[in-house]
Amino acid sequence: MTPLIEAKGLEFGPKAAPVLRDVSLRVDPGEIVTLVGPNGSGKSTLLRLMIGALAPRRGTVRRARGLRIGYVPQSLVLDPSLPITVRRFLDLPHRVGDAEAEAALAQSGADGIAHKQMAALSGGQFQRVLLARAVLNQPQLLILDEPTQGLDQPGQAAFYRRIAALRREMGCAVLMVSHELHVVMSASDRVICLNGHVCCEGTPEVVSAAPAYRELFGTGTGGQLALYRHEHDHAHEGGGAAHHHHHHHHAEG
Ligand SMILES: Nc1ncnc2c1ncn2[C@@H]1O[C@H](COP(=O)(O)OP(=O)(O)OP(=O)(O)O)[C@@H](O)[C@H]1O
């Protein structure tokens, strides 16, 4: 299958302290790929390289010709002293028709709030409006950076169900960052565990059984991310089913 987007050998950040090293990643049409990894492991940076907002020091990102990407950023701060309605927000940066705007809001579960002020939205509504803006151009690839930050658990579950529904309706692929491991594991076709480099990747079953993943996230955390920084390279105990990338930059004990 021709990938929608394919990154090869990405390096980013200072040579002495790279943020990303030798990261390769592809997304095929229609699949849901989730990036997991500790804080500061380069997940947002990788997404920004994929959309072309950042340039890698080395490596390439190839996008399918004419690829339409819808991007939902990790956070977006709007100046509350600048009033703007949901409807007008959807006109940024390009004006859209009323029918289009309404359809996107409905698809994103944000119907009926077009007249509201952005500053007056709840966290969940705000995320759905960001999603509506991302689906306006009928993207073939939706890129979401921790889209459920600040939502409670039911809100998160509902948001991911909506993403799955959008994928079915629009046939788009999804590349997202999530810290919600149990959601990731149930909602993804493929999981990529990042820690400056790709530690392991594969189906949720394969990744959750991989030693590298277990070392990063532990097994007894009840689906919550362990919030420690993974400073050393994991040991690659032999025989794991996951596709391991070997990058031993320093000695392991
Ligand atoms: N433009 C940049 N140039 C150099 N370093 C950067 C740049 N942007 C981010 N970084 C650094 O890259 C590292 C990874 O940041 P990034 O936001 O990608 O991590 P993350 O995995 O998304 O983290 P979190 O889970 O906390 O959101 C951080 O140490 C950050 O300071």
Automatic annotation (TrEMBL):
Organism ancestry: Bacteria, Pseudomonadati, Pseudomonadota, Alphaproteobacteria, Rhodobacterales
- Residue intervals of the ABC transporter domain: 5-220
Superkingdom, taxonomy of origin: Bacteria
Gene designation per UniProt: znuC
Know the name of this protein? Zinc import ATP-binding protein ZnuC
The record ties this protein, via Gene3D superfamilies, to: P-loop containing nucleotide triphosphate hydrolases
Top EC class for this record: hydrolase
One GO BP annotation is: zinc ion transport
Pfam families assigned: ABC_tran (PF00005)
The Gene Ontology terms for molecular function here are: ATP binding; ATP hydrolysis activity
Protein EC? 3.6.3.-
Organism (species): Limimaricola soesokkakensis
Keyword Plastid present in the record's keywords: the answer is no
Keyword tags: ATP-binding, Cell membrane, Hydrolase, Ion transport, Membrane, Nucleotide-binding, Translocase, Transport, Zinc, Zinc transport
- Which segments of the protein form a coiled coil according to its record? none
